[in-house]
Design goal:
The chain has helices at 21-31, 36-60, 69-78. By secondary structure, the protein is mostly helical.
């Protein structure tokens, strides 16, 4: 998933943002990013993944499974 031009190259766009400098530095340190850009992109990717998971859970809904704890653990270890 991503935006690419016709040659398969990733498109970049220069954007100016007013960001909380302490928050940005905390993010850089927390993930060990080499640059602020890397930290911002990692945060955006994480947010997108989180929202996609939420949408998937919402779309799938919930259902009851008639499994014991040991049967569930067996399924998890097999898969």
């Amino acid at each position: 998933m991503g935006h690419y031009d016709m040659g398969g190259e990733r498109r970049m766009k220069r954007t100016s943002l007013a960001l909380d400098e302490r928050l940005l530095e905390e993010a850089v340190e927390a993930i060990g990013a080499r640059t602020k850009k890397e930290a911002v992109e990692a945060g955006l990717r994480a947010l997108i993944r989180m929202k996609q998971k939420e949408m998937l859970r919402k779309d799938l809904g919930t259902f009851d499974m008639d499994l014991s704890l040991s049967e569930l653990e067996e399924l998890r270890s097999a898969g």
